[in-house]
Design goal:
Strand order of the largest sheet: 2-1-4-5-8-9-3-10
Oligomer: single chain
Number of helices: 11
Largest sheet: 8 strands, antiparallel
Distance between the termini: 80 Å
Structural class: alpha+beta
Number of domains: 3
Strand content: 25-35%
Number of strands: 16
Helix content: 25-40%
Order of helices and strands: EEHEHHEEEEEEHEHHEHHHEEEHEEH
């Protein structure tokens, strides 16, 4: 990774101004550390431009064009990305005013970092935009209170990496990878003006369908009881509410410590390893907000019980406490399905012995 040009702006929401900071001392090393950490985030999501005429996209493409035509200097780079910093300031001032009126919550204060990077191995340009948290600390030399960021500890609140192809006459954006540490939609919708490639609905559907396919492949044939319990757990996890999903956390919560009915521990390990590879294989984001209605699956699962008797599960979603609601038992050499019911009419319909 070779940093060609970079700028650092303080976004002063309180005084409605931006301040271009001088690049001094070890700033390039600090920026390199930050960019490496941006690339290592697990929750990156793919976006694409809504238009080439929006502020951020237009100026990023102008910078890429200036580079490809060898018409760029430090001053020109700062001039072109100045409007990007102004755009963020104007959006955050508006969001701040709105937030304070509705729920008294301030926009996170921070520093805007922008950098143009060339990847020699791919021949592609990358343009980084990141907002870093402000920290308050004291100078070791004279204990003067300072405000800034620490390259190895600063939190990246929000970021975007544009991948740009400059092999054509006119540079174009291949994709944009965005990270946000919360539900601040203004970063993508109002500042970057990008649209998500995978929406929450698409992510939820792809995640569940790929998990369900893997479940069927590995567990359904030989470990039917475990298949039903684990599948029910995933349905419940994704259908409960619109909540943030960290994919790897979901897998760990459901499978870590799972005591199988018949499935060996090594099979669960293999199953878990395959699940962890699904975001890349199936093309969904590892961090998304669950959209319960997107978990379609099969509307119901039918089991043959006896001649003229069928058992239907999962018609309306997750079965709470599945293990204690329905189970197989053997009494006097005969196999039975034991079902807990909270419906008095159903219970009374099958009374056979009066005690």
């Amino acid at each position: 990774m070779k940093i060609l040009f970079s700028t650092i702006h303080s976004i002063d929401i309180d005084n409605n101004r931006i301040i271009l900071r001088e690049k001094e001392n070890d700033i390039d090393d600090a920026l390199s550390s930050i960019l490496v950490r941006m690339n290592s985030e697990d929750a990156l999501r793919d976006y694409e431009e809504e238009s080439v005429n929006t502020t951020v996209v237009k100026h990023v493409l102008s910078i890429a064009n200036a580079f490809s035509t060898k018409n760029i200097t430090d001053d020109r780079f700062s001039e072109l990305n100045h409007d990007i910093a102004i755009k963020l300031l104007s959006v955050e001032v508006e969001v701040e005013e709105s937030n304070m009126k509705t729920h008294k919550k301030s926009v996170q204060r921070g520093t805007l970092v922008q950098a143009l990077v060339f990847r020699e191995e791919s021949g592609k340009l990358e343009y980084y935009i990141a907002k870093l948290e402000h920290n308050e600390f004291y100078s070791e030399e004279n204990f003067v209170r300072l405000i800034g960021f620490q390259s190895d500890k600063a939190k990246v609140y929000k970021s975007c990496k544009f991948k740009i192809d400059i092999s054509e006459t006119t540079p174009f954006i291949i994709t944009a990878e965005v990270y946000v540490n919360n539900a601040s939609k203004y970063w993508t919708d109002r500042f970057l003006e990008l649209k998500e490639v995978n929406t929450d609905t698409v992510n939820t559907r792809k995640a569940f369908n790929s998990i369900d396919t893997t479940l069927t492949k590995i567990l359904k044939t030989n470990y039917k009881a475990d298949f039903q319990i684990i599948r029910n757990a995933f349905i419940g996890y994704l259908r409960t509410s619109r909540r943030d999903i960290e994919y790897s956390t979901m897998i760990n919560e459901i499978l870590d410590g799972y005591e199988g009915i018949k499935v060996p521990e090594q099979i669960i390990t293999i199953f878990k390893e395959e699940l962890m590879q699904l975001p890349k294989k199936a093309g969904f984001d590892p961090h998304f907000t669950a959209e319960p209605k997107a978990v379609k699956g099969r509307k119901y699962t039918t089991y043959k019980v006896n001649v003229g008797v069928e058992l239907v599960l999962n018609k309306d979603g997750k079965i709470e406490d599945l293990e204690n609601t329905i189970s197989s038992v053997v009494e006097h050499g005969e196999r039975y399905i034991k079902i807990k019911t909270n419906d008095i009419e159903t219970f009374e319909s099958f009374i056979r012995n009066i005690e």
